[in-house]
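Re-run requested by the PI after the first attempt was lost when the workstation crashed. Everything re-entered from the original request form. Ligand of interest: iron/sulfur cluster.
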Amino acid sequence: MITKKEISDFLADRDPALLEKLAARAGRITAAQFGKVISLYAPIYLSNYCENNCVYCGFRSSCGLKRKKLTPKQIESEMKIVAGSGIRNILLLTGESRKMSPVSYLMDAVKIAGKYFSSISLEVYPLDTDEYLELYKAGVDGVTVYQETYDRNRYDELHLSGKKKDYDYRYKTPERVALSGIRMISMGILTGLSKLGDDLYDLFDHLNFMERNYPGVEYSVSFPRLIIEPGDETDYHKITDMDLVKCIILTRLNFPRVGINLSTREDASLRDHALHFGITRISAASNTSVGGYVEGVQEDPQFRVKDLRSLKEIEKVLRAKGFDPVYTDWRRIDNTPI
Ligand code: SF4
């Protein structure tokens, strides 16, 4: 595996020729492994109740946010709008509150989603294996869970209270997901929390461990950039566009078959540029507020969407760049005897 020093040397390197050469190589590997296709997905926020206190997040339990949780009827209304746009891969999100979004609530949401979407992923609080198994049986085929930062001391400083404070339980979540039979796991770091090179190395190490021990799973990674909340005076690390581009290139060169996701948290020009050297999956026409698709506004979102283009506009850009936009690449087959 690449060393920590090699990662930090590349992040610090200013040689445009080297960058160009490695970007081109990453692009060739991506095309060879995935073809010229980009999968499209959208998020639906079900609830913003959260029992954790992550200093960097606007959903944290100590902030005076107006809390909301969708009813099954409201969930269905959101889904109808998203499915009506053509999206078939959905990511269902909640804040991390087991009390307000129990597994039974998630199950109900997944069952409704099954009417509209062929692929259903969850980004919720970490669960136990038997709970993932229940959700898998209900139709979940993907789970997203980020460690945020792999630096234990920094993790402890930034996660003040709540279940998330338990670093090890979170770290072992991808294993519990894999044991349940769920086929896709998305891992990642919230870039900006800690030293980028160290976090990237530890993410690679974690991913390597998962690939070796659970080879049947389809893995992907994300590098969301920290957006500093007003009033948050914590000392963070600045992450430039170039840093992000280098994270994508390094991932592709070291993990040829791992998917790389890029959300609407990044602006249109960076997203379009990154398509050429490693990205395989992007969100589109996203609303990051609870109930935001029906209300048509972004009120108290988890983060502000920077790429505001419609699905049709994004599809047009993809085609112009020679990529096929993919809405469905997975369909669950029910083998239950009639
Ligand atoms: S990052 Fe997640 S767990 Fe932490 S406060 Fe925000 S929603 Fe809750």
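Saved to the shared folder this time. Residues 50, 52, 54, 57, 59-60, 95-96, 164 surround iron/sulfur cluster (CB under 6 Å).
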